[in-house]
Amino acid sequence: MTSFNKIAVLGGGAWGTALAQTAARAGRSVTLWEHDPANAQHLSDKRESVYLPGVTLEPSIVVTRDLADAARADALLLVVPAQVMRPVVTSLAPLIAARTPLVACAKGIEHGTHRFMTEIIAECAPAAIPAILSGPSFAADVARGLPTAVTIAAADAAVAQALAQAMNSGSFRPYHSTDVRGVELGGATKNVMAIAAGIVEGRKLGASALAAMTTRGFVELVRFGKAYGARIETMHGLSGLGDLTMCCSTPQSRNFSFGMALGRGESIDTAAHGKLAEGYYTAPVLLEMAQAKHVDMPISTAVAAILAGKLDVDKAIEGLLTRPLKAEE
Ligand SMILES: NC(=O)C1=CN([C@@H]2O[C@H](COP(=O)(O)OP(=O)(O)OC[C@H]3O[C@@H](n4cnc5c(N)ncnc54)[C@H](OP(=O)(O)O)[C@@H]3O)[C@@H](O)[C@H]2O)C=CC1
Ligand SMILES: O=C(CO)COP(=O)(O)O
Question: Which residue, judged by its Cα, is nearest atom 22 of ligand 1?
């Protein structure tokens, strides 16, 4: 079976750092690439990411700013925000060997093009093998070696299995799948639902309202997934139900925290408190894609309207509660 020993991680942020730690603990030779000079210097000198304070890099991890260094790996984890995946893959493409797996670890859908992460890889690096890693996995938990399970998907089952094997560190337990679309769609959609759940929490609407929002958010994820080719078992799995329930339940999720701040009345511009909330970028795209296939997604529609400044939180909540009654599905 194919094996991937040299792993490069692109993106020295919270998740990139956590995955670099995981790959090193799994016994892999790890190169961590960071594009920002200041963060790269901090990673090299202090052996710590500014995005994950208190986590010291494993001694074996090599930090670099040279993309060609990273490109020599057997497989690369792409751990940059979803909306910058395209420029990163475009720069990387001419440097990698054919059939190198590029594993998108971002959770989002590209503005404008409506491309999923692996579609961007296929388009910008056609000689590479696109793959996706997603699931209920907070960087701080994973970096500290707390038990975590995710799903790694690639079209070729043997590649997915080999990537899972490469990242298996004991406490980090990757399942493998060939449902690439299902895995990447769940991770993107859950971020929007986490914002909605955070708004409910921030408005102090109670546990019952949070349970209703989470449940109906999952219904929307499944509807959207069916329309865009996801397998039902994937949506019921780690990258769908698992990640959604986790991120709809705790302020450890930046998207949930962003929603909480909105629920407390903070402005859209300040509610993220300088942290990455991918759902902010995905919500309008999700709405456009749902409309394109006539998928009914009232929660996503409400979140997108709030984020566009077209609807205030209380009106959005009232609108959801006063919709015509219907049979549950
Ligand atoms: N944090 C988590 O718990 C998890 C995050 N994810 C996903 O991982 C992805 C990354 O998130 P996360 O690491 O948390 O985000 P962070 O904000 O912690 O880090 C983002 C990283 O991307 C880098 N970056 C930003 N813009 C560019 C660019 N144009 N070119 C190259 N690098 C760039 C940043 O570098 P710079 O220092 O220059 O800004 C930084 O190193 C997201 O899609 C997120 O949904 C998935 C699972 C868990
Ligand atoms: O995707 C994640 C956990 O699975 C991280 O969630 P946030 O981006 O909401 O912090």
Answer: 80
213, 248 contact by CB (below 8 A): yes
Q: How far is the CA of 324 from the centre of ligand 2 (A)?
A: 33
- Cα separation, 27 vs 87, in Å, equals 30
Give ipTM to 2 decimals: 0.98
Which amino acid is located at 136 in the chain? Answer: P
Residue 30, helix vs strand vs coil: strand
What is the overall mean pLDDT for the chain?
Answer: 97
Indicate which residue's Cα is closest to atom 31 of ligand 1: 35
Q: How many CA atoms lie within 13 A of 113 on its CB side?
A: 15
Q: Is 203 helix (H, G, I), strand (E, B) or coil?
A: coil
Answer whether 139 contacts ligand 1 (Cβ < 6 A): yes
In 3D space, the residue among 35, 45, 40 whose CA is nearest the CA of residue 10 turns out to be 35
Listed residue (320, 191, 196, 199) closest to 265, CA to CA: 199
Q: What is the rounded CA–CA span in Å between residue 154 and residue 163?
A: 9
Q: How far is the CA of 87 from the centre of ligand 1 (A)?
A: 14
| pTM listed for this prediction | 0.98
Ligand 2 nearest-atom number relative to CA 275: 10
**Which atom of ligand 1 is found nearest the CA of 84?**
29
Q: Is 190 annotated as a binding residue?
A: yes
Write out pLDDT tens, residues 62-105.
999 999 999 999 999 999 999 999 999 999 999 999 999 999 99
Q: Is 190 known to be catalytic?
A: yes
Tokens of 188: 């993107």
